[in-house]
Design brief:
The chain has 582 residues and is of the alpha/beta class. 46% of the residues lie in helices and 8% in strands. The strands form three sheets. The chain has a six-stranded parallel beta sheet with strand order 2-1-3-4-8-7, with helices on both faces. The longest helix has 26 residues. The chain starts with 10 loop residues before the first helix and ends with a helix. The N terminus is likely disordered.
Length: 582
């Protein structure tokens, strides 16, 4: 729908366009280009002008624009604007072991700016009734540099919903899509467009669609929804599977792929460390380290002090600290435990440095590690529905909203590292902002899932036709088996079910080298001798797990991601409820 055209322009329509452009000039002055697309979302922005101006996210974007204008000598739209004293992050006392290059700095800043703009526009789209997901980065945009500590082609990554900037940077490094294409895909998620490549219009999830006809042997970006920590057990499973898959696929991998030792990276928030999924996965990784089993998983925990309204009060730091007073216990924990690397989450250089140290440790030692991102301040609440004033006083809410990590990072890279100029940062801020707004305008008008049948098709497990042997062939096989028994002078006899199961499992392991059998007590034969003798016949492919069905089923998912075909033994149906949510 167009607001006006060259052929027919009524005074009423001209007045409408004039008001719209005036609104855009006042409320979107942080963009250097005025547009008049006549899109549905643009019209709705005009209708909801007063409410949009009142959004704290909108105010924050205007303040950042004013700050950049003042730094570049541009006229400010408000004469009463007072330039804030924005300081760069304080570098660690010991300095940085690894430093970002100028091109990496620029890319990390791009990812952070895109994440910030996406969050602002998601809140605007929601207010206008066209956006349906409002959980944002909450002041964690500068975690983007995590992406430089991981191999985008080999390592596996599963990200907490606040860590969008890491996903954007990863996709930029892969080079398969431009920044604007990546932004459009994310806007489609916020607007639940059917063209969203991640979920197809059923939710807004972090991750990326897998490239067709590629085999990354378990690497890549895994889809994570707005859950607390269900991404963790499969991540630990992928780490356990990598060394097994390396042995099985040694002849299939290219020389370059075979030379890379993969790590599995997974992130959560500080509230998620209370969740059983995280604790199960963390315990499995620690158990693997204690037994010297290879498990190159890296946990990333961002700590902003709040789990929505529940204050975490630094518990994450306490949880991962070495609290034992016994020197022998501390020494054993240093040797057998999971090393913890602590980074200032507002400092992109420290984030990169500590994450690279952790991933390098895990890669070299095939062992787990953890990075704790601290000193983060949550901005704007958990989501649009979060009533911050019900549990925080007004001064605290304002102070949190004013803590602009993107502005602080710009000061850091301009004044301390000379990587960009304020002029360049200003133009890039505008350019990315316009990309985001164009993307939301487009995504809001794309088709959505509108029927029950479409929804079922998108979210249900696809039905797979299982080929069955015809009755004539089965009769022939039974007759052949009976004849062979007579020739061997044996009397055909019925056998107990578990022996038939053992035979079938043995056939599966023999016929398919990707098959592995995992469970509790399966190496010695299992509760009912189903795997009797198989561990000796198939070394390394019949694997015991500790008695925790959550990690057992989660690890099985990770095994399958790495290209293996796991058979999971659950000896009693009652045990299923312990891992059913996996």
């Amino acid at each position: 729908m167009m607001l006006c055209s060259k052929s027919k322009t009524s005074p009423q329509r001209l007045g409408r366009v004039h008001r719209l452009l005036k609104f855009r000039g006042r409320t979107s002055h942080c963009f250097s280009t005025m547009r008049n697309t006549g899109s549905l979302l643009e019209i709705l922005r005009h209708r909801n002008e007063k409410d949009i101006i009142a959004l704290p996210e909108y105010k924050a974007r205007s303040n950042l624009d004013n700050f950049l204008r003042s730094k570049t000598g541009r006229e400010l739209p408000q004469s009463s604007y007072v330039l804030p004293n924005i300081l760069p992050p304080t570098p660690p006392a010991a300095g940085y072991t690894h430093v970002l290059t100028p091109s990496q700095i620029t890319l990390a800043l791009d990812a952070a700016m895109a994440t910030f703009h996406l969050h602002v526009e998601s809140r605007i789209a929601s207010l206008c009734g066209q956006g349906f997901y409002t959980i944002g980065p909450c002041g964690e945009e500068m975690l983007s540099s995590i992406g430089f500590a991981l191999d985008p082609h080999a390592d596996a990554i599963a990200l907490h919903y606040r860590h969008l900037s890491v996903s954007i940077l990863r996709q930029l490094r892969l080079g398969r899509k431009s920044l604007e294409e990546i932004i459009l895909d994310r806007a489609r998620g916020y607007c639940v467009s059917r063209l969203d490549p991640v979920t197809g219009g059923v939710h807004c999830a972090i991750g990326s669609a897998r490239e067709p006809n590629t085999n990354d042997y378990g690497g890549g970006d895994y889809v994570v929804t707005s859950t607390l920590a269900s991404q963790c057990p499969p991540a630990a499973g992928r780490a356990l599977a990598f060394p097994i898959a390396d042995t099985i696929f040694r002849g299939e991998k290219s020389e370059s792929a075979a030379s890379v030792k993969q790590v599995s990276f997974v992130t959560v928030g500080d509230g998620s460390v209370h969740n059983a999924h995280f604790l199960s996965a963390f315990n499995l990784a620690r158990h693997a380290r204690f037994r010297r089993n290879k498990c190159p998983v890296v946990f990333g925990v961002s700590d902003n002090g709040l789990s929505i309204s529940y204050p975490t009060d630094g518990y994450a730091d306490f949880l991962f600290s070495k609290t034992s007073s016994d020197p022998k216990s501390r020494a054993q924990r240093d040797r057998d435990g999971i090393p913890v690397f602590k980074a200032n989450g507002c400092d992109m250089f420290d984030v990169y440095d500590k994450t690279l140290q952790a991933t390098s440790y895990s890669r070299k030692n095939s062992a787990p590690s953890l990075v704790l991102y601290q000193e983060l301040i949550r901005r704007f609440g958990h989501a649009a529905t979060d009533r911050q004033h019900a549990y925080l006083d007004a001064k605290t809410v304002d102070r949190m909203a004013d803590s602009d990590v993107v502005a602080s990072a710009i000061v850091q890279v301009v004044d301390q590292w000379n990587a960009v100029t304020y002029e360049e940062a200003y133009h890039r801020f505008h350019e990315i902002g316009m990309m985001v707004q164009r993307s939301f305008d487009k995504a809001a008008e794309e088709p959505k899932i509108s029927t029950r049948e479409e929804m079922i098709e998108q979210v249900s497990q696809p039905m797979v036709q299982i080929p069955r042997l015809n009755q004539e062939l089965l009769t022939s096989l039974n007759e052949l088996e009976r004849t062979e028994s007579i020739v061997r002078n044996e009397t055909p006899k019925r056998d107990v079910m578990r022996k038939h199961m053992t035979r079938v499992v043995s056939e599966a392991l023999t016929n398919n080298p990707r098959v592995v059998y995992i469970g509790e007590d399966v190496e010695h034969g299992g509760y009912y001798l189903v795997t009797d003798g198989l561990a000796k016949r198939f070394p390394g492919r019949v694997i015991d797990f500790p008695p925790d069905e959550t990690t057992l089923l989660g690890a099985a998912m990770g095994f399958s991601h790495a290209g293996l075909l796991p058979i999971v033994e659950i000896p009693y149906s009652k045990y299923l409820d312990c891992g059913a949510d996996m």
